[in-house]
Amino acid sequence: MKHTVIYGFVVLALSAFFTGTALADTFEGRAKCSSCHKSQAKSWKDTAHAKAMESLKPGTRKEAKVKAKLDPEKDYTQDKDCVGCHVDGFGKKGGYTIEAAKKPLAAVGCESCHGPGKAYRGDHRKAGQAFESKGTTMQRKVLADKGQDFQFEEACSACHLNYEGSPWKGAKAPYTRSHRQLTRNTPLTLRRW
Ligand code: HEC
Ligand code: HEC
Ligand code: HEC
Ligand code: HEC
């Protein structure tokens, strides 16, 4: 009996925890990060991630689209089966939506890898001040508890390894095998951008 009660509490506590984190995603867009991290923002601009939305426009990446049996003249920028992996936080709180598309979220931006920034961004600001006055640096655990991602594998996999038969256990439809296999077929390595 006692066990059932304790078990009940554990389940409640866990579900509160998971609902809490689900509610907590809040994407803000790369402009917020870029105002401080100017050099990273500059190098990001030259990456494929920065151009992810361009690739969904008609007339772009023609050869790759033909190979992947996609229509090179079609506009895929409003297709819900496409935008999910070509923008920040699709289907998540604060993330990109097709109906009210926001430019700072359109592309695979900072928060797609580093996590939704609303809760931890303020800590970065304080850390910058603390570093100047006291020479101290931030504690990663505090930031991780607020949603900053330091692992990356799950984030990369959700977009890059979502195909049928993938070694990534989170894979689910819509799969990307069609274009993943047939385009450049880059092996997934944790290199920066
Ligand atoms: C939100 C989805 C998403 C996430 C998260 C993501 N990527 Fe990407 N990645 C893409 C898309 C989409 C492209 C292709 C963009 C284009 O060319 O239009 C891409 C392109 C790339 C490329 C360039 C491929 C080439 O052939 O030029 C590399 C390398 C890459 N990603 C590695 C990573 C790594 C490593 C991570 C995690 C640290 C990661 N990506 C996270 C969606 C994502
Ligand atoms: C599950 C995530 C995901 C979805 C959904 C998705 N993509 Fe992608 N897309 C990627 C990734 C990851 C890459 C980078 C491919 C690579 O280099 O391995 C990419 C690359 C591309 C490229 C660039 C290919 C090249 O070689 O230049 C085009 C074009 C593209 N996607 C179009 C689309 C279209 C159109 C759709 C919808 C029909 C779509 N994508 C849906 C993840 C996705
Ligand atoms: C495709 C995933 C990805 C995207 C998009 C991305 N980053 Fe990163 N970032 C990384 C990885 C991986 C590292 C290296 C982490 C490590 O070494 O522990 C990193 C490191 C950093 C660092 C630490 C300092 C440094 O340069 O090593 C900063 C600051 C940073 N990124 C800011 C940004 C900003 C700002 C943006 C958007 C303009 C951005 N990142 C976009 C994956 C990404
Ligand atoms: C007000 C300025 C400011 C803003 C806004 C800001 N940062 Fe930072 N960020 C900093 C400073 C300062 C540091 C270094 C702090 C330290 O090491 O104590 C830092 C550190 C980082 C690091 C390295 C952390 C580590 O432990 O390796 C990453 C990654 C990063 N920021 C990403 C981002 C992302 C993504 C955003 C947007 C969601 C963002 N930052 C917004 C100022 C800022």
Describe the structure.
This protein is mainly alpha-helical and 193 residues long. The protein has a domain at 26-116 and 151-182: Flavocytochrome C3, Chain A, domain 2 (Orthogonal Bundle). 46% of the residues lie in helices and 0% in strands. The protein contains ten helices and no strands. The radius of gyration is 19 Å and the shape is elongated. It starts with a helix and ends in an 11-residue tail after the last helix. The model is unreliable at 1-21 and 182-193 (pLDDT under 50). Bound molecules: heme C (HEC) (4 copies). Residues 55-56, 61, 64-65, 70, 76, 79, 81-82, 84-86, 159-160, 162, 174, 176, 179-180, 183-184, 186 line the site of one heme C. Residues 55-56, 61, 64-65, 70, 76, 79, 81-82, 84-86, 159-160, 162, 174, 176, 179-180, 183-184, 186 line the site of one heme C (HEC).
By CATH, the superfamily of one domain comes out as Flavocytochrome C3, Chain A
Order of helices and strands: HHHHHHHHHH
Which shape, going by the Cα principal axes? elongated
Q: What is the highest CATH level, the class of one domain?
A: Mainly Alpha
Can you count the beta strands?
0
Mean of residue pLDDT? 82
Proportion of helical residues: 40-55%
State Rg.
Answer: 19 Å
Please work out how many helical segments DSSP would assign: 10
Structural class: mainly alpha
What's the CATH architecture of one domain?
Answer: Orthogonal Bundle
User: Largest beta sheet, briefly?
Assistant: none
**Poorly predicted spans:** 1-21, 182-193
Q: Could you tell me the strand content as a percent range?
A: under 5%
CATH topology of one domain: Flavocytochrome C3, Chain A, domain 2
Bound molecules: heme C
- Gap between N and C termini: 54 Å
